[in-house]
Design brief:
Blueprint lengths: L4 H13 L1 H10 L21 E5 L2 E4 L4 E4 L2 H4 L8 H13 L10 H12 L3 E5 L2 H16 L3 E5 L18 H4 L16 H4 L2 E4 L4 H10 L4 E6 L13 H14 L2 E6 L11 H4 L5 E4 L10 E5 L1 H4 L17 H14 L2 H24 L5 E5 L2 E5 L8 H7 L2 H13 L2 E2 L9 E2 L6 H18 L13
Parallel strand pairs: 3-13, 5-6, 5-7, 7-8, 8-9
Antiparallel strand pairs: 1-2, 2-3, 4-10, 9-10, 11-12, 12-14
Helix pairs in contact: 1-16, 4-13, 5-13, 9-10, 14-17, 16-17
The structure holds pyridoxal-5'-phosphate (PLP).
Pyridoxal-5'-phosphate binds next to helix 6.
């Protein structure tokens, strides 16, 4: 299929506007594979490099300004460089950023997290990866069992235990009721994966099958309560209640991976489902841009962590920089009022995506959850990874993304399986500008382009 001239012109214009990124990429790619430090930042034909972020704005290396709705994959619900964070961090730098011994303010932050996210005890780490890795170990240590159920299409960080069935193609994904246990790439240990079982997201029967087959062997079920590595997928509340009951029946630890969702509603996803997991992992937004993650949960389980008990350690864990940032972010920045405003803006964006693309004759399915939302170019609902692979028009998504970028908007994190995040620093004008630009690009997205080969136009 030929690319329409106007769409081709958008891709050409994108390359013209990002010449400096191309230059940086060409210098960097022989030193750093694909010119990036995280595979999710690699873009074809080259990644876009940035050097500054302020409030709701971000600036690339060519000096282009964008209203940022990626917000560092949801890290920056506080917005870029919030003044309250700048103040506390400047003070902290003068007082030392790593002390080696435990930092006295962990008590304050642990209290804030206990009250806000309904957990009895917490341990701090730095990244989401560490939090899910430790949560699994804690569940295994507590239950004295090894098997862990995860779901097709969910991502829990770059460690071997859960780098399975993250984003396989349709052939590799396997059966809807019995997804395949496909490693996310070469190098993922077969031994690590031997104890992982894979179920279909939102489908309780596929979980029941695994419980029936391994009644006494399952330590934990880990899931994103709202899947945010497949756009935004909100499973039925009934699914979550039945999952809770199943875990109770079999003595299995239910882990909510709230690395993303802890920044979407004031109390995280538990607020929406009314289901309390045994353990929770949180990261990204909770420290306003500084590396902080939390493993929290029931006292009976968490108190098994300790010397000569379940291991948990890390040189940078609860460093004062991250703890101070966490306190200010959760206490003073991500307040109920500020989050409510961001949530309202995000639901306006969901409505705008639905209306504008429908009016332009583009099949569209848009879903919001708190401060985030996603657009799928699909004529039906997307409820799991199979649906995404079958129904999402990836080609249209890239026309949308590139055309929005050309008009000064980063509409979502880069990738059709990602979502936008509205921060507490986005203004009504930012949202209006996004809507104006959507009106402008809808006619381009309506044009016929190949479904899968999203980068053909480059
Ligand atoms: C749900 C979820 N869990 C865990 C992680 C891993 O977090 P990190 O990249 O901080 O290691 C991510 C990252 O995107 C995530 O989305």
């Amino acid at each position: 299929m030929d690319i329409p001239n106007e769409v081709q012109a958008e891709f050409n214009s994108f390359l013209k506007r990002t010449k400096r990124s191309n230059e940086i990429f060409n210098k960097t790619k022989d030193l750093v594979p694909y010119g990036v430090s995280s595979n999710y930042r690699a873009l074809e034909p080259y990644p876009i490099y940035f050097n500054r972020g302020v409030g709701s704005r971000i600036y690339d290396s060519d000096g282009n300004e964008y209203i940022d709705f990626n917000m560092a994959f949801g890290v920056l619900v506080a917005g870029h460089n919030h003044p309250k964070l700048v103040e506390i961090i400047e003070e902290r730098i003068r007082n030392g950023v790593v002390l080696g011994f435990e930092y006295e303010r962990i008590y304050e932050l642990a209290n804030i997290i206990r009250d806000r996210f309904n957990v009895d005890m917490v341990r701090f780490s730095s990244t989401g990866l560490e939090a899910t890795l430790h949560a699994i170990r804690i569940a295994r240590g507590y239950t004295q069992r090894d098997k862990v159920i995860k779901f097709l299409g969910t991502y829990h960080g770059s460690h071997d235990f859960l780098l399975v069935a993250t984003k396989p193609n349709l052939y590799a994904a396997g059966n809807r009721k019995r997804p395949s246990k496909v490693p996310s790439g070469p190098g993922v240990s077969k031994a690590a994966l031997s104890e992982i079982l894979v179920a279909q997201y939102g489908d309780i029967e596929s979980v029941e099958l695994l419980f029936a087959e391994h009644p006494d062997e399952i330590a934990a079920v880990i899931l994103e309560p709202v899947a945010m590595n497949m756009g935004v997928i909100i499973p039925p509340k009934e699914f979550m209640h039945r999952l809770r009951a199943l875990c109770d029946d079999y003595g299995v630890v239910l882990i909510f991976d709230e690395v993303k969702t802890s920044g979407k509603l004031f109390h995280g996803a538990e607020e929406y489902f009314g289901v309390k997991p045994d353990l929770k992992t949180m990261a990204k937004a909770i420290a306003g841009g500084y590396p902080l993650s939390v493993i929290g949960g029931r006292k009976e389980i968490m108190s098994e962590v300790g010397p000569d008990k379940i291991p948990h350690a890390g040189t940078f864990n609860s460093n004062p920089l991250s703890i101070d940032a966490g306190i200010v972010t959760l206490r003073d920045i991500l307040t109920r009022d500020a989050m409510d405003r961001a949530i309202k803006y995000s639901s306006e964006l969901v409505k705008a995506h639905r209306e504008i693309f429908t009016d332009a004759g583009v099949p569209v399915y848009s879903v919001g959850f708190g401060t985030s939302g996603a657009v799928f170019f699909s004529d039906r609902e997307i409820n799991n990874w199979h649906d995404f692979l079958l129904y999402e028009h990836t080609g249209k998504w890239w026309v949308y993304f590139v055309s929005m970028m050309n008009r000064g908007i980063i509409p979502t994190a880069p990738g059709p399986d990602e979502q936008w995040t509205v921060s507490v620093q986005h203004s009504e004008e930012d949202v209006e500008r996004m809507v104006d630009v959507l009106n402008d690009v809808a006619r381009l997205v309506a044009m016929d382009v190949p479904k899968m080969k999203n980068i053909e136009a480059f």
